Amino acid sequence: MPGRIHVFYSGRVQGVGFRFTAQDTARDLGILGWVRNLSDGRVELIAEAEEPVLKNFLARIEQDFKDYLRHSDVHREQSTGEFTGFGIRF
């Protein structure tokens, strides 16, 4: 059964290719959802996939941006099945 994560990343996460890397990684792993910058400097991300895939995704994001991330606030939610791909929202 698919899971869903709703994540808020803080640190130096804007202007470093975070959204594009998250999109590429999500597409590589078959994850559905979206990522966007927030006006307060954080990045928000919603992703749906099987739990092991979501864990891999989070680990890859944290590894790719370990020098920029200060905090990640991960909320587990119930999958809605509303997404057909993974994109960047503006």
Q: What overall form do the CA principal axes indicate?
A: globular
As for the number of domains, it is: 1
Q: How many β-strand runs?
A: 5
Class from helix and strand fractions: alpha+beta
Helicity level, as a percent range?
25-40%
**From the coordinates shown, what is the CATH architecture?**
2-Layer Sandwich
- SSE pattern, N- to C-terminal: EHEEHEE
Described by strand count, sense and barrel closure, the largest sheet is: 5 strands, mixed
- Order of strands in the sheet with the most strands? 4-1-3-2-5
Q: Give Rg in angstroms.
A: 12 Å
Instruction: Give the count of helical stretches.
Output: 2
Unreliable sequence segments = none
Mean pLDDT: 97
CATH class: Alpha Beta
CATH topology: Alpha-Beta Plaits
N- to C-terminal distance: 30 Å
Helices and strands in order, then pairings?
Elements: E1 2-11, H1 18-29, E2 32-37, E3 43-50, H2 51-64, E4 69-78, E5 86-88
Parallel strand pairs: 2-5
Antiparallel strand pairs: 1-3, 1-4, 2-3
Helix pairs in contact: 1-2
Give a verbal description of the structure:
The chain has a single domain (2-80), classed as Alpha-Beta Plaits (2-Layer Sandwich), CATH 3.30.70. 29% of the residues lie in helices and 41% in strands. It has two helices and five strands, in the order βαββαββ. A five-stranded mixed sheet has the order 4-1-3-2-5. It is globular, with a radius of gyration of 12 Å. It starts with a strand and ends with a strand.
